[in-house]
Each structure stands twice: as C-alpha cells, then as structure tokens.
Design brief:
The protein has 104 residues and is an all-alpha fold. The protein has three helices and no strands. The chain has helices spanning 11-39, 45-72, 82-103.
C-alpha cells in the first residue's frame, strides 16, 4: 500500500506565519521591558533583573520558534514535540511575569 502524495494546502504557511507573529510579539515585549528598565526615571534592581530575564526568555523562545519554522519547511514536517510545546508555553508565561516585575 502506497501513501498518496501529501497536499497540505496552505496550513504550513499559516502555521509558519503564526510562529513569526508570536516571535514578533515576544520581541516587542522584551524590548519594552528593556526600555522600561533602562530608560525610566527610577531604576531598580528588580527592574534590571526582570529586563535581563526577559531577554534570556526571548532568546529561548526565539530558538524554539526557529526550530519549528525550519521544521515546517520540510515536505512532511513532524508534529511539535511535547518538550518544545512546554518550552514555548513556559517562555510566554515567564515573559509575562518578568514584564510585570519590570513595571512594578
């Protein structure tokens, strides 16, 4: 029994664009956190720590997203693994928490 050729339609392109939009959102959040910590009138250790951790989480999310986008370029991309999914969720939640630390 042979498998029929896969016709994914536009689904991989939509998924790739969704990963890029999410990466852009994380980039904006990390940049705003750094700007708030460095450009505000009052600077605190918690603000600098939150901004630094935001940038580290952004780099981690960027690595996960880049791997997923590269995987979607294949003819038959594998499903997103549980580890990569949890890493993306963890980065998103951590980025939100560190952003709150910068604002407070």
């Amino acid at each position: 029994m042979t498998l029929a050729p896969r016709d994914p339609g536009l689904q991989p392109e939509r998924t790739r664009l969704a990963w890029r939009r999410t990466t852009l959102s994380c980039t904006v959040a990390a940049a705003l956190a750094a700007r708030q910590a460095l450009g505000g009138g009052e600077t605190s250790a918690a603000g600098f720590l939150g901004a630094g951790l935001s940038l580290l989480v952004w780099v981690a999310f960027l690595a996960v997203a880049h791997r997923r986008i590269a995987e979607l370029d294949r003819g038959r991309p594998r499903a997103l693994g549980a580890g990569a999914g949890w890493a993306a969720v963890g980065c998103t939640v951590a980025l939100a928490a560190f952003a709150v630390a910068v604002v407070v």
